[in-house]
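pinging the channel bc i need a second pair of eyes. not urgent but kinda urgent?? the chain im working w is below, pasted from the shared doc
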Amino acid sequence: MFKGWISSNIPAEGAGRRLAAGSLVNNFGNGAQLAAFPLFLVSVADFSAAQVGLALMIAGIVGIASSPAAGWLSDRMTPSRLLVLGGFAQGAVAILLFFVNTVLALCVLAGVARVLSQIVRVARLSIVAQVPDATRNVLRAQMNVYSNVGVAMGTAVSAAVIAVGSKDAYLAGFVLDSVTFVASALVQQGLPSQERSPRDKHAQPTASPWRTALKDRRYAAVTVLNGFLFFHQSVLFLGIPLWIASTNEIPKVLATVIFLMNMAITILLQVKFSEGMENLRTAAVAWRRSALAISLACVLVYVAARAHGDAVQILAVLSAALLFTFGELWHSSTEMEVSTRLVPEEQHGLYQGIFALGRDAAQTAGPFLAALFCVSLNPDGWLILTALYALFAVAAPYALNRMHEGPVANQPTAAESAL
């Protein structure tokens, strides 16, 4: 069984293996800085918590706004070349962040780091989007597995850096992050990607990525719907831990158990759930299953909030976390499919950048909304979430099926022709 899991999680082609390896190395560095970076800014660089929060919020907004432009740039250049250049630039910025000593410098460098992160992510997804239908979704799932493994390994390093707490230890974390960015770029250097035709190379650049998004209403709708479904991540990883912390009846360690359980299951089953994802119809089925699982999970947390007795509450919360995890697996299996089926030819980068807006908006608004529904409006907030995801389970798959039956946007791609 273990050998079968190993073989199913190793990409068949050399290019796919290099993408997976790049994801592993890149996310190892990201994981190493995930918790250490904000603590470094407060405890070593002597910024206040408010200054750090403001700088990171500004950087996040800049990153979101740059996503379509990053995709447009990926279309103007080859995605593989942009992926490598972005990785080298990330390595340089990672080191510079260690030396920031003013709020302005922190805002600028953190903003540049987020823009580069968007560029690398969109370029990588643009390459995956050009993979043939039969292997594209599985490859994305395999990359997600390696990303999760990388983050888990990096988090362990981050814990060690924080435990030591010295300036030299934090510097080692910054150097490690920089090295992993460069190593990831080197591993992925020379990856095959679609070349622009001579006619397209001399075409005038798109006037506004935002205008393109607004013109393609079907793709904008898919982006918004996917972003809403992605919000369940904030509920699981922030809403439930905050709710646990707000009650005195459930052990606080349960939040850690939920995190570890989610990571283990997603690593084991991510590829399995991606198999059979062939078109928008199969994506619609997965969307419905995901939303129903999340809706039922919210009901279970509501039951836990109303119940008395540790055993009942713990069982209900763990069951809810399991359903959230299956909802995540069904959802993540669809993202590559719904983000590529409606894309005009030779505009994969721009459209991947637009698609990322939904996820990024959910990540940005997620903490506030999760705290609102899961804590401030507790327990009724869980019923509101139940109703919202139940409505999604009915309406969103119907919308996807209509898009499957309708005409493709602009020019057909090879993937769309397979419909």
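so The first helix runs from residue 2 to 8. and Residues 69 and 208 are 8 Å apart (CA to CA). — does that match what u expected or am i reading it wrong
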